Amino acid sequence: MGKKVEKEQTYIGGDLVSGLPQTNSKSSFSLEYESDKLKITERIIKIFKKDEELQVFWLDMRKIISIDLITEDNIIEKQKSVVGRGVAGAALFGPVGAIIGTASGAKTEKSVEKTGVLVVSYYGKDEDDIKTINISIASVNVPYAQKFVNYYQIHYVKDTLEQNENGDIIL
């Protein structure tokens, strides 16, 4: 078997937080690189039909200052139901089952969920007019959003970074 080649992430979707007009509160937004522009599409996702495009925004890549992903780890605590487990144990195994079921439900499970916001910063009318578009990224799509940002940095930022003789980036 050969080495798995990872596909570049040139598309990501999420819900609008701020920065663009939204025509429908149930719509979602997708961002896609198309040569020298970033295409931002507002659409209604349909399950059994073709998605309905509501409006399209085009942003010239030369106007973009940065595309970044801001993430936050949220600790979610799930408490096991003591009463529910006791009742289920009693129904299956009688009084002994009720005791065992109650004892098994006294714990709390903790899991970490990563949430994210994709932030596109760009110049408006001039360099003094800086604007941002913020798109909320579902926790399952955070890794794809990071690849989307990496694609931007590899294909659009690499030529603009100045490095010294040690390879350090000069800001």
Written account of the structure:
- With 171 residues, this protein is of the alpha+beta class.
- It folds into two domains: 11-74 and 116-158, PH-domain like (Roll); 81-109, no CATH class.
- 23% of the residues lie in helices and 44% in strands.
- It has two helices and nine strands.
- It has helices spanning 82-104, 142-157, and strands at 11-18, 28-34, 37-44, 52-60, 64-79, 108-123, 130-137, 162-163, 169-170.
- The strands form two sheets. The protein has a seven-stranded antiparallel β-sheet with strand order 4-3-2-1-7-6-5, with helices on one face. The chain has a two-stranded antiparallel sheet with strand order 8-9.
- A hairpin with a 6-residue loop joins strand 6 (108-123) and strand 7 (130-137).
- The longest helix is centred in the middle third of the chain and has 23 residues, at 82-104.
- The radius of gyration is 24 Å and the shape is elongated.
- The mean pLDDT is 81.
Concise account of the structure shown:
The chain is α+β, with helices and mostly antiparallel strands and 171 residues long. The protein is built from 2 helices and 9 strands, in the order βββββαββαββ. Strand 2 and strand 3 (37-44) form a beta hairpin.
Query: How far apart are the termini?
Result: 43 Å
Number of strands: 9
Radius of gyration, CA atoms, in whole angstroms: 24 Å
Question: Tell me, what's the shape?
Answer: elongated
The biggest sheet, with number of strands, parallel, antiparallel or mixed sense and barrel status, is: 7 strands, antiparallel
Low-confidence stretches: none
The helix-and-strand class reads alpha+beta
